[in-house]
């Protein structure tokens, strides 16, 4: 029997229960498009859950999954390893800069955050230093496990439980639209410097290269390079969360590549498997892993999951790397993203739009209110473009396989949606 609040027994995450009845149902996806139960096709301008970076139904990814399903679905990662996970770990070591050579495979971005924090905190114990303070952005989003959610100061992630270690949240010194100047970089760095200088020594600073769920905030150029220097000065580990930005989303393979830095720990998920199967990774430097080989914690990492590094998911991830290289998807992300940003910037003349910002294939349109954003997103969906909006910001992040024609269509339909919403608000 169905409950009184809904006609469905499915409890969807992060969605008010009162809004779940009669909502959109997606039944099919091909290339850069998805179809709803009524038969209507949409240009998928949100890449599934920001993870369908190679588009939907890609034959090479389906083939990689089918082949691995037949060969070996998965095996106990505590008893043995298998080729797909071994290959993926060594390919990540080749792809990532510097000493980032040691990878632990998991299922979700939140688990990657959880593992990264445990590794960082254990690292300090391993070398005999008592550090446990973690510094993050207030507008950060690092996931939804108990630890990961505590790192975020966003209103929707607020929890009633106390964090198990001190967490310091850095608020943006200016509105997102004012965060692209050299002065804003100075102001932001000054806040991180103060947090690192004040209080007990920090164990780690954990940031996203672009604040994704915090409003698609593009951070000032050079900020990460200066943050790297600060962390070095204070001996704190720098953890980069590449769950949202990694694998080409921002027009470079990783978000931190824009600043040419090497973090100490990197978390990855979403695009790693193109969204075909759940997969995440944490990669750390060889010198961090080295401290886990010594006594008394020689048992290594006391963290892991039954399906972590699932063989089929790992095989798909290896195929994703091939597809990305063969189809030049990072280059396409940079090129299509630049066209999209330039075209959508024209919307800044609309009375409803307060800012348009972006990096690679993450473009955000900030509206003057959450209601305007909802109206624009609804008009875009009506015209056949799927976007997502949160707290007044409409996010456009299509698959990296988007074509010139798709980009032109997105520009035309989203601009039309803004006009329709503006006319209704007059
Ligand atoms: C930057 C970032 N980190 C972590 C996560 C959590 O990933 P997951 O939803 O797979 O747990 C997300 C999810 O959106 C994210 O954007």
From TrEMBL:
Full protein name: Aminotransferase
Segments passing through the bilayer: none
InterPro entries linked to this entry: Aminotrans_3, Aminotrans_3_PPA_site, Class-III_PLP-dep_AT, PyrdxlP-dep_Trfase, PyrdxlP-dep_Trfase_major, PyrdxlP-dep_Trfase_small
Keywords: Aminotransferase, Pyridoxal phosphate, Transferase
GO molecular function: identical protein binding; pyridoxal phosphate binding; transaminase activity
Keyword Protein biosynthesis: no
PANTHER family documented for this protein: ACETYLORNITHINE AMINOTRANSFERASE, MITOCHONDRIAL, AMINOTRANSFERASE CLASS III
Family: Belongs to the class-III pyridoxal-phosphate-dependent aminotransferase family.
Pfam families reported for this sequence: Aminotran_3
Entry superkingdom: Bacteria
Cofactor(s), by name: pyridoxal 5'-phosphate
């Amino acid at each position: 029997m169905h409950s009184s609040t809904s006609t469905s027994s499915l409890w969807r995450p992060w969605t008010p229960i009162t809004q779940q009845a009669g909502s959109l149902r997606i039944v099919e996806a091909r290339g850069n498009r998805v179809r709803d139960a009524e038969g209507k096709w949409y240009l998928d301008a949100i890449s599934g859950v920001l993870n369908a970076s190679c588009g939907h139904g890609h034959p090479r990814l389906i083939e990689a999954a089918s082949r691995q399903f037949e060969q070996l679905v998965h095996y106990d990662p505590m008893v043995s390893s298998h080729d797909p996970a071994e290959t993926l770990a060594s390919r990540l070591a080749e792809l990532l800069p510097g000493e980032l050579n040691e990878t632990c495979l998991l299922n979700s971005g939140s688990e990657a955050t959880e593992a990264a924090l445990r590794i960082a905190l254990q690292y300090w114990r391993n070398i005999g230093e008592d550090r446990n303070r973690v510094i993050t952005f207030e507008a950060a989003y690092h996931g939804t496990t108990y630890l990961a959610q505590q790192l975020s100061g966003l209103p929707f992630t607020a929890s009633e439980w106390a964090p198990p270690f001190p967490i310091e949240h850095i608020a943006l010194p200016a509105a997102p639209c004012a965060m692209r100047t050299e002065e804003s970089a100075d102001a932001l760095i000054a806040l991180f410097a103060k947090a690192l200088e004040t209080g007990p020594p920090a164990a780690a600073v954990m940031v996203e290269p672009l604040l994704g769920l915090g409003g698609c905030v593009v951070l000032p150029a050079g900020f990460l390079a200066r943050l790297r220097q600060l962390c070095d000065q204070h001996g704190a580990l720098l953890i980069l969360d590449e769950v949202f930005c990694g694998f080409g989303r921002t027009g470079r393979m990783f978000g931190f590549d824009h600043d040419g830095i090497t973090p100490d720990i990197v978390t990855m998920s979403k695009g790693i498997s193109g969204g075909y199967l759940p997969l995440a990774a944490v990669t750390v430097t060889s010198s961090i892993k080295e401290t886990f080989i010594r006594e008394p914690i020689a048992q290594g990492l006391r963290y892991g999951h039954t399906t972590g590094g699932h063989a089929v998911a790992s095989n798909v991830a290896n195929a994703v790397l091939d597809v990305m290289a063969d189809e030049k998807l990072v280059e396409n992300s940079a090129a299509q993203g630049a066209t999209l940003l330039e075209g959508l910037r024209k919307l800044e003349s609309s009375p409803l739009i307060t800012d348009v910002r972006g990096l690679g294939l993450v473009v955000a349109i900030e509206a003057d209110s959450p209601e305007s954003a909802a109206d624009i997103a609804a008009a875009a969906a009506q015209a056949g473009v799927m976007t997502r909006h949160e707290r007044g910001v409409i996010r456009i992040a299509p698959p990296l396989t988007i074509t010139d024609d798709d980009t032109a269509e997105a520009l035309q339909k989203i601009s039309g949606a803004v006009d329709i919403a503006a006319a209704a608000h007059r």
